[in-house]
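Suppose you are handed a protein chain with no further information: no name, no annotation, nothing but its sequence. What can you learn? This example shows the usual starting point.
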Amino acid sequence: MSPSPDPSPSMPTPEASAPDEVVYRFGSFNLYPARQLLTADRPIAIGGRALDILTALVERAGAVVTKEELVSRTWPTTHVGENNLRVQVAKVRQALALYEQEGGRGDQPHILFVPGQGYRFARPVHRQVLPAAQPAPPLVAPPLPQHLSRPVGRADVIAALAARLGRSRLLTIVGPGGIGKTTVALALAPEVAGRYPDGVGFIDLSFLTDGALVPAALAARLAPHIQAQDPLPPLVAYLRPRRMLLILDSCEPVVGALAPLVEAILAGAPGIDILATSRESLGAEGEVIQRLNGLAVPPAAGGLTAAQALDHAAVQLFVDRVAACRGGFELTDADAPAVAEICRRLDGIPLGLELAAGPAAAHGVAGMAARLDDRFRLLVRGRRTAAVRHQTLRAAFDWSYALLSPAERRVLNRLGVFAGGFDLAAVQAVALEEGDTTAADLHIAGLVTKSLVVAAPAGGDQPRLRLLDTIRTYAREQLAASGEMDAVCRRHAAHYLALLGAAAPQWEAQPAQEMLARYTPELDNIRHALDWCHGGLFAEDGSNAAAARTLTLAASPLWVRLSLWMEAAQRTSQALALPQPFADERQQLQLLTLKGMAYTITEMQGEEAVGIWETVLAMAERLGDDSCQLQALMGIWMIYFDLGRLRDTLGLARRFQALAAAHPDRAAPALAERMMGASLHIMGDQLGGARHTEAAIRLSRVAAPPGQTLRFHANQRVLAQSTLAGLLWLLGQIDRAEVEQRAYLEEAAALGHALTTCVAFGQSTCPLALLMGDVSAAQRHGQLLLALSERHGMVMWRHWAGCFELLIQAKRAGRQADPEPVLRALTAITDLSHPRYNALLREVALALGRAGETAKALDLITTSVERSRRNEEGWCLPELIRVRGELLAQRGERREPEALFRQALEMAGEQGALSWQLRAAVSLARLHMRGGAMGDAPDLLAGLLARFSGGEGTTDIRAARAFLAHFGGGMAPAGLLAGPLGAAEGGLLTA
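A reasonable first move is to predict its three-dimensional structure. Written in structure tokens, the prediction is:
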């Protein structure tokens, strides 16, 4: 049998009279060459070229068709090799075998290869001529709904969908209710309409509840003349000659029935493309999914302006809708943070933003933001023309909720207890029935598919899951209504208590960054669990209080490593204030220790912090807890150091050293040396300070477990290196100072620990940059210090950073500087009495002198000198004395300035502070030069310079060498005579 193929390849049109149709039947298959259709109870999609090969073989069933004939027929205009033919034949064989096996046969192959000749169709074939079909009525595409509002923030998605429609025939836009799926689909339609001569048809499936009715519903909209009991085959036949895009909207009520229907249409009507919108995917073959997320929202950051907020699509949409409700509305900088908060709390969901616009227009955006906890009652006035499910925010979620199984509803309700993200282990522990160990994956997969749970990639083996904030609020309401809230919250708290309890021994054994990556994402859930423990109904057995205290301590490694000291202070205070007695006195001691350190670092309650530490010290001694004793000694040392009680800090450091010598913690001896070094340095013993600080660095390099990089709440090696860098500068070892500074800056950056960075930058990096004349570096590091200290509530370092910024501005302004802002800033923090503030006061005195306010400058520097002597703050006393001499010299005096310069020289020499000596010698040289004599200045300068190592580019050494050149007969550089009170940045003497 070798029937002739239809020579006309053109597709019949509805208006032309169709010729008789030929069908080839073999086994359970029907092949319609004119329609390019192969069926076996349903259409089979094998591709056009595979179908051409099958048709050629079936038309000549029993005869050999050569490879050349098959290639010529299938690729008439393209040169291809035999491999292409083999691939297509394999596709045909695979499809026929697959579908025939479903029918219970498969003993004999359909297509045989004849070596050296070609292929032969081996099954019996029956050829039948069907009578010509009557012309179908012309198609009228169901009209698109009118959508008056323009989509905001979806241009990229629409462009991507338009491009994908050129490559894929089935696209599904998936997302939660109110996310804007229909809006995107309707916006896409005009972009691609030109590709579809028969138009774009829109079919709303939201009103259906029975999947069996879907074929009839499609036929009723697309081909009302079809009245068959099973309308799918005639509908497919009717669509076959069309070139059309079908938009199937709101598929979720009947999603289970849509996959086979869509597959049948796509297989039987090659000119039909389908765009679906649904809260879950259809699961059809060839489906490409486009997930639609909320519109972009601004980050939760301070200082947001209106212009910055309007860079985000959610804000643009909200502002547009508020303006439509209240003419003339424009976003201001004052309203920008509240609007950003509204957009974040509503997850950028367009429906929520549109519904929020009305109340915001009536009550103001700040009032709207404050009432968002009650969003489901508040957001109720949608467009009257909108679908019922889109007229209130609750209706949108009621619609999705109603489509869930009872088990899925129960799991979703319980997931509402989570704050932030969660993993499958948490789902298993909190949201599933006890013993139900297999359902977690199943339920979560279903909720993810239905766009109610968001799955995001995570660093571990399992994805991180979360609910959108609006869905979480809805789920919590349902959980409360179910009566399960307290029980589920209890399970939630128990899970995170167990999680952190298991992690406790790992904090000292595992690398800090690995532990933070694992447990930082759980912070919001830990906070929620603590809030429930404190705010829920307390059990009579006191279990809530015990859980709150245990969970507070278990969470403390996170707070310490993330420098969340304000939170640590608040949570420990809450735990200690609970009325229930402690079952374990050691737990009370540990909470007091953590509270003391939090209060000390944040400067919350200076006097109270001392009292806490004294209590800790007494309890620790009584209980024999050496670790808490060490913490208490260090805490008191820190407070006394800030208060300028330096002699007391030296005694505390020695007590700490004696206790640390017998302690198993290898970080304790290093900290003891650092405490000794810092105390001696500030008291003026620079050589002793350097010796102990270098010992601290050596001890800190002794191998320790990976998790001990933050022993005693900070990285002790970084802090010791930062202290040593300043000491080395004072000692004239500038090259070594620069090496140490680079080393600790690199380590601090890699560590990313805020407290460590703030202490290092505040006590060394910023001051040293100024001392070395690198104003740009001082400003750069000062800005980072300000940002970190503000973010983590470190009051002292925040003030310190603010003063640095003002001082840098004054330095750059030179004689035009206004020192008053710096003075006011310093006055605001003098109560803290930190010994390093004298260095800042010295800078202010210089600025006052440059501004011509010499009397005020002298008063300030005299006060600083007296205070330094009183507190034994010898470290910068030579420099304060020198600056006093410079101020007096500015008034034209000579005898007292020279005495002060020589006093500074002698004192700095006793300390080993070579850099202070050089400054005093330069001041003396300038004084002599003004008087027309050299005196001993050249010898002094030459001798001191010979003792320096490195630092040739620093301000001080350049100035000293310039004076030596002048005394040797050279020209004095411009500004040399003016000195530090007349030089601006870039001059030789800006110190």
